[in-house]
Amino acid sequence: MDQTPSPRRRQKLAELISDDIKRWIATEGLTEGDRLPNEKTLMELYGCAKGTVREALKILEVEGLIALKTGPGGGAILRTPSMEPASRMLRNFLHFRSLDGHQVYQLRRLLEVEMAVSVVGRLGKADLDGLEANMSACECSRSDDEDQRRQRFLELEFHNLLARACPNPLLAFMCRFLNDMLRDLVVVKKAYVPERKQFDEANHRYHRELVDAFRDEDAERVRRLMDEHMRDAEDHMAALEGEMAEQMLISLDAFNGATEASPLLRFVNNDQ
After folding, report:
1. Which end of the chain offers a freer environment for a tag, N or C, measured as fewer CB atoms within 10 Å?
2. Cα separation of 114 and 226, whole Å?
3. Within 10 A of 89 (CB to CB), how many other CB atoms are there?
4. Which Pfam family, any one, appears in the UniProt record (predicted)?
5. Does any domain span residue 3?
6. What is the tens place of the pLDDT at every residue in 29-51?
7. 265 domain-assigned
8. pLDDT over threshold 80, residue 143
9. Residue 109 and residue 93: Cα distance in Å, rounded?
10. Rounded to whole angstroms, how far apart are CA atoms 56 and 25?
């Protein structure tokens, strides 16, 4: 079998220009609200056509680095990219790699603990009030499926609130990204069905004790509690995935016993 790696795709001129503009932004220390040179200036600087410059600016806009405004006073204005586009692209990259809860928690067990410790002493009244409001919202959930799904999302949002106070932007991003991964798993695997009161109660207890430890600025207690919380959450996730796998097998057995299979399944079986 030929092991020769495929040649790397040659970058288009517009991509090279957008990369150079990003380097210039970083070198000059530009911030949100600053403007890029206008189209005519960029065309002269790079010796290219208007269409190429516009394509380069569109790349930066899609990446969330600029906003393009038309009319008088318009142009390319720098903006601070949100986390969502980067998280979504990474999740898309991992979408077909069959991630499970255990693989996510291999990282989450480590990173959540370090993130939690890093915010000890950094949470102001507004931060602590936000955590309290989150826990109150969790307590108000009912037993229907939609509310159970909301409950799972609120529990993850508790950790996002902590990540927003993290002084390390890379650690904060990774923790929020893993929470997004778990949020996707909740949706795809319906991880709120069946109702799991034991999981709810454990999450609420750990969140309450964590907030108390944050108020006391007790880093060692925060470390211990978050470590226990992550291990407990992983155990619940493993149990849930086991239940879901068993239900899937039962569903497949019932489906395979049916007299009429789906057209897609018939096509696959015939092709084999």
Report:
1. N
2. 9
3. 10
4. FCD
5. no
6. 999 999 999 999 999 999 999 99
7. no
8. no
9. 22
10. 14
Number of domains in the chain: 2
Question: Is residue 255 pLDDT above 70, yes or no?
Answer: no
42 within a domain of the structure (yes/no):
yes
Largest CA distance in the chain: 70
Nearest to 101 by CA among 182, 189, 179: 182
The sign of the CA dihedral 48, 54, 59, 63 is: positive
pLDDT band at 250; cut points 50, 70, 90: very low
Closest CA to 75 of 35, 109, 135, 44: 35
Helix ranges (H only) for the chain are 13-28, 39-46, 50-62, 83-94, 101-118, 125-139, 145-164, 169-189, 197-216, 219-256, 263-271
Does the structure show a pLDDT above 90 at 218?
A: yes
172 occurs within a structural domain: yes
The radius of gyration computed from the CA coordinates of the chain, to the nearest angstrom, equals 24
The residue to which tokens 């049916």 are assigned: 258
109 lies in the same domain as 70: no
**Residue 246 above 60 pLDDT?**
no
Q: What is the pLDDT of residue 152?
A: 85
- pLDDT exceeds 50 at position 259: no
Can you read off the two tokens belonging to residue 73? 């006073």
Same domain flag for 30 and 98 = no
Q: Which of 141-155, 158-172, 195-209, 256-270 has the lowest mean pLDDT?
A: 256-270
Q: Which letter, b or e, does each residue of 185-204 get, where b requires 16 or more Cβ atoms within 10 Å of its Cβ? A: bbeebebbeebbeebbebbb
Confidence category of residue 8, pLDDT binned at 50, 70, 90: low
| Residue 197 shares a structural domain with residue 236 | yes
* CATH at residue 67: 1.10.10.10
**Local structure of 48: helix, strand or coil:** coil
